[in-house]
Every structure is written in structure tokens, then in C-alpha cells.
Amino acid sequence: MNWYGIRAIYRFEMARTGRTLMQSVASPVVSTSLYFVVFGSAIGSRITSVEGVSYAAFIIPGLVMLSLLMQSVSNASFGIYFPKFVGTIYEVHSAPLSFLEIVLGYVGAAATKAIMVGLIILATARIFVDYSIAHPLVMVAFLLLTTVTFSLLGFIIGIWADNFEKLQVVPLMVITPLTFLGGSFYSIHMLPPFWQKVTLFNPVVYLISGFRWSFYNLADVGVGISLAATLGFLALCLVVVWWIFRTGYRLKV
Amino acid sequence: MNAVARTADDDILVVRGVDKVYPGGFQALKHIDLEIRRGEIFALLGPNGAGKTTLISIICGIVNLGAGSITVDGHDVVRDWRATRSLIGLVPQELKTDAFETVWNTVRFSRGLFGKAPDDAYIERLLKDLSLWDKRDNKMLMLSGGMKRRVMIAKALSHEPQLLFLDEPTAGVDVELRRDMWAMVRRLRESGVTIVLTTHYIEEAEEMAHRVGVINKGELVLVEEKAALMHKLGRKQLRLQLHDALDAVPAALASHHLELAAGGNELVYNYDTQGERTGITGLLADLAAAGIRFRDLSTRQDTLEQIFLQLVKEGA
Ligand SMILES: Nc1ncnc2c1ncn2[C@@H]1O[C@H](COP(=O)(O)OP(=O)(O)OP(=O)(O)O)[C@@H](O)[C@H]1O
Ligand SMILES: [Mg+2]
């Protein structure tokens, strides 16, 4: 393994984050605070509690998931797309780095940054609500699995994209709607029966449900099913990355 | 510079029957065979679109190999890519850099990418050698084009490669930087690095290289010692327009190997300007002794440029 090479990519990506510290750290803090003001205070004063948990506390796992998904995808997709765009990717291709090592560098950095943002949001939420985490290990497991999975998805998008529009379209048109409709701000039991069924086709429902269970013992679907769905999605992303490697899809001419 | 002595398996790079067809069907390389000797400076000469960058990119692992095989220091670039890529440094034709990174970090990053343990003392020396030390904390976007090119060179050398490719190193470079660059290339080669450079300019090949290869439309049309090319370049022709036409070269002048041309109105003498003596004085004395008078004379020389253009035309 070319550990120095992996470390070089990882550091480079983390330095890029460091240069945009305001954007990386301040923006999740601000947006989380806004969610609390709008949803927690304004709506929360009417909904008061969901299945025994205060509404403000109820939305925390969903908010963290929302940011994790968006951050993972955008960090990883941008991380690999940008060197393609400016042409510096030539150096990565000419270096003694395997595809696995390249993935580890870019995906590792994207996941690290997403987790940092997730933790910042958890800390910010603490200012507004007093919440507890019932199953910390499960919580960490979901955090890691989700971040790695969606960072891989972002990497795939970054390889596939050959312009900025494609880079934006998946996060904007697919991931954001799925997250908002995935039960970040409501329990799917609050939906009419028909929509409860439809919602089960949304993979994000399983992520949020499992994650929320680790906080409050409260789940839309069984935690085992959530975990299986998350692992399934991770496996799918790994297969696609492996396929890109096998076929050299959009890597070199 | 003297040519590098040739011993058996002393080629650092061996290219055998390499073809490349780009997606879309364009054949950029046609059956390239080439050996680069350890420690030499090799110039790859060719017009735009000849395939120079394509060949280098394949050797470096940036473009996939079509058919054929390539070995670097005995390692196959496809099967044993980790070994070959560790040995190679590349300064690409186009300046592609991370605008917001500092010079120092950019060069350090390259060394890491190539799997080498950090060595700040080495990078410091490298930057000093390339007159970049003062600029080490500058972001790339603050550098001039020539400085960026130096950074590209520093990046390529950051992992101490054995084989260095310089793809049109002097494009957009002023006279001073060009001179610095050649001085650096010579120093590198003295330290044992083999250098392959591409250029459109014959003078550059002439000044720097031990051997020259000419590539045109994906075909390697010539590979020759520079000295041999210079020999061709050194050949001159003296043409004498005679007062009175001759039927044959007089026997008294046989030792000069003259030819008759223009229906007996011209005598043609080939000689070597590189030789110890051109033989012109003797020829003129013998002509006078034989009573042959001439009205006018002219000399002609093929320049390397002409040789090159002719080769490229023949290939067309
Ligand atoms: N990615 C690509 N896809 C298709 N064709 C390509 C690609 N890259 C290069 N070519 C074609 O291959 C040919 C050789 O290109 P190459 O860049 O190797 O030439 P070159 O000798 O380096 O030229 P120059 O002196 O202009 O740099 C050109 O006709 C070019 O259009
Ligand atoms: Mg070129």
C-alpha cells in the first residue's frame, strides 16, 4: 500500500476544508440554529411531542442525517471532480497509486469532514434542547456507515460528472427531496396509510429511523431492517466503485 | 556533449510496437519502437498533433496503452505499474496547478503522492535550485507562468525520479528561464537522471540532446545520434558555374570526386565543414592548373530544419 500517497490526498483534501473553515463550520451551525428556531420553536409549540419525545428533540437525528448526507455527497463528489476539472488529476494517475488508494484518500477525507459537521450539529443542538442518546454505539455505527456510504456515492457522482451541472443535479434533485421526505421532520406514522407505504421505498427513511432509534428507542421501521438497508446501500456503492475500477469508466482514455 | 556509450541491456526505457487508438477511432500512434539509453538526453521532435504527448502519457500511465509493450528499467508499465511510475517524473505540457495551494505544499504533496517519506531538506534544496525558495509560501495563483513551470519541474523531481519527461518545457518561457532550465537539465543528467524532452524547435534538440527522434502523424520516422544528424547538417555543396561547358571531369581533377551538372556547365563538389580540412584550396589550385575558368560560385547547405521538414513531408 502507498500510505504516503493516501495520506497526501487525505491531507490535501482536509487542507481544502481548512481554507473554507467559515463555510465548513459556520454554515452548519447557522442552518441548524435556523431549523431549531423555525421547526423547533414555531412548529414545535403546536406539535409539542411525537410519541413521547419533544418535537425539538425528535428532529435532531433527522437534522444530523440531513447534513451528513449532503456533506458526504458534496465533499466527495467535489473532491474528485475538481482535479478532473482543472486537470491536476494527471498527477494522481501518473503516481504509483491504486484505485483503492485513491478512493481511500478522497472518500476518507470527505467522510471525516462530514462527521465533523455532524458532531458540530449535535453540539449546537445541545444549546437548544436537552437530548440523550440511548444507544451510543449504535449511533456511532449509523453515523459511520451512512457517512462512508454517501461519501462513496459522492465519489461515484464525481467520477460520472463531466460538468458542474451534473455534479449538482443528483444532490439537488434526488438526495435533498429524499431526505426531506424521509422523516427528518416527522414520524411516518403521521402520514396517511397510502403514503406510509410509498415512503418505504425511500432509502433515507431507514437511515433516519435507525439513527433516531439509537437516540430515543423510537423507530418508524425496525432497527434491524434499518441496519440491513444501510449495509445494503453501502454494498451497492462498493459494487459500483468496483465496477468503475474494473472497466476504467471515465477514468482514463 | 558526447554521446553516451552503449552497452548491452542498458536501456532505461523500451517501447515495443506501441499503437494507440483514441475512443472515436483516431489512431494517434502507429507501431512505435524506441529505446532510451540510461543517462542520455533524448529529444522527441515533431509538429503539432504528431503524438508526442500521447506517447509520454502512455508511458506515465495517464493514457491507457493500446497495443504493444513498454518497460521502464525492466518493469512492464501495465503489470508492474507501481515500480515504473515510482521511477518516472513528468512535467506536462500544460500548466495545471492548484491555484490556492502554496508552492511548498504543492511540491510536498507530489512527493507524498509518489509514496516517498517526507524530506523537507530535499524539497528545500530543490526549491532553492529552481529559484523558488523565496516563493515557497506564495499561492500558485500569485505566480507568473514561468514560475509555475518551475514549480511543475519541482513537483516532477520531488520524488527523485530516474527518468524525467519534459513535455515542451520551453513553451512560453523567456530566454533567461530557458537558459536556467537547460543548465538544470544538464545538472540532472550529470546526477544520473535520464531525460526525454519534446520540442518543436530543432535548435533546442541540437543544443541539448544526445539523440533525436522525429515523430510525425503517429509514426517515428527517424532516430539518430545528434552527431550523425550534425554530420548531415555539416555537408556542404560547392557549385561552380563554368565559363566553358565540359564533356567530362578532367582526369587531373579525379582525386576531388567532382560531378558535372547543368549540362556540363556546372561542377559540383561535396565537402564536410566539420572535417579537418575542406579541400577547397587544393581544388581551386588544381582548377587553375587545368585551365578551367569559372564565372561564379555558390555554396549550399541542408539545415537540420530542412532535413526535418523533408522527413515530415516524406511521412505525409
Ligand atoms: N483524448 C483524446 N481523444 C482523442 N484524440 C486525442 C486525444 N488526445 C490527443 N488526441 C489526438 O491525438 C493526436 C496526437 O496528439 P498529441 O497531443 O499526442 O500530439 P503532440 O505531438 O503532443 O502535439 P503538440 O506538439 O501540439 O503538443 C492529435 O491529433 C490529437 O488531436
Ligand atoms: Mg503535446
Would you tell me the structural class of the helices and strands of chain A?
Answer: mainly alpha
- Given the structure, what is the number of helices of chain B? 10
* Oligomerization state: heterodimer
| Beta strands of chain A, count | 2
Bound molecule kinds, no repeats: adenosine-5'-triphosphate, magnesium ion
Largest interface: A-B, 27 and 34 residues
Indicate the overall shape of chain A. globular
Instruction: Find the CATH topology of the largest domain in chain B.
Output: Rossmann fold
Describe the strand arrangement of the main beta sheet of chain A, using strand numbers: 1-2
As a percent range, the share of helical residues of chain B equals 25-40%
Tell me about this structure.
The complex is a heterodimer of chains A (253) and B (316). With 253 residues, chain A is mainly α. Chain A has one domain. In chain A, 79% of the residues lie in helices and 2% in strands. Chain A contains ten helices and two strands; from the N terminus they run ααββαααααααα. Chain A has a two-stranded antiparallel ribbon. In chain A, helix 2 crosses helix 5. The longest helix of chain A is centred in the N-terminal third of the chain and has 32 residues. The model of chain A has no long low-confidence stretch (mean pLDDT 90). With 316 residues, chain B is α/β, with parallel strands linked by helices. Chain B folds into two domains: 221 residues, 3-Layer(aba) Sandwich (Rossmann fold), CATH 3.40.50.300; 69 residues, Alpha-Beta Plaits, CATH 3.30.70. Chain B is built from ten helices and 14 strands. A six-stranded mixed β-sheet of chain B has the order 6-7-8-3-9-10, with helices on both faces. In chain B, a hairpin with a 4-residue loop joins strand 12 and strand 13. Chain B is elongated and about 80 Å long. Chain B starts with 10 loop residues before the first strand and ends with a helix. The mean pLDDT of chain B is 89. The interface between A and B is medium-sized, with 27 and 34 residues. Bound molecules: adenosine-5'-triphosphate and magnesium ion.
